[in-house]
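The step that takes the researchers longest sounds almost clerical: writing a folded protein down as plain text. Below is the pair of lines this work produces for a single protein:

——
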Amino acid sequence: MRNEMMHRPVVKPELVEFMRNKQKKIQGELGVIEEEAHEAGVPIIPHETVVFLQFFLDQIKPKNILEIGTAIGFSSSLMAQCVGEDGHVTTIDRFDVMIRKAKVTYERLGLTDKVTLLEGQAAEILPTLSGPYDFIFMDSAKSKYIEFLPECLRLLPVGGVLMVDDVFQAGTILDPIEEIPRSQRTIHRKLNQFLETVMTHPDLTSTLLPLGDGVIMITKERELTE
């Protein structure tokens, strides 16, 4: 389950080391789960993204959050602890092994009432949701980002934020496609299409952050006409 992209940082290694080890650690059982995941090589969001996500959610104070890509339930648990007593997190995953691990995480943290885990294909589940979600975190199959984008934007209110993880592909996102291994070319092409779309769309504002393997924050400025 080793996440290769976590070991190929897009910024200077010493800065990555500083951000991951000098920033405040998560307290309590969730912090223990984070450490266990790192020791076992389980792919969760890196600590610099954890700290940013905590800070950002504390500023915008969302009530309803949607996550696409549950994995072991770490990031949804983190977000569930940031939404307050009346907030809620809905998360989607299709992998049985991850679903089982996520359920254990929620039980361990006492978050079964704060998180709803929807099991199945995001492409089938997203159209059934009505939202709105103040904040959406997408960290799933990278080639699917462009396909999930219209539904994410439908579910966001004006002023809502979509945060998308792992958009730099370990810094190879700008390389000519001929230099990309054939097995990665679909991801490379569709990630570039996704970035081009959100960065140029007249009704969206976006900003790129060099956290982990790259994060893009997208705000819906007005109701979309296309």
About this structure: The first helix runs from residue 13 to 22.
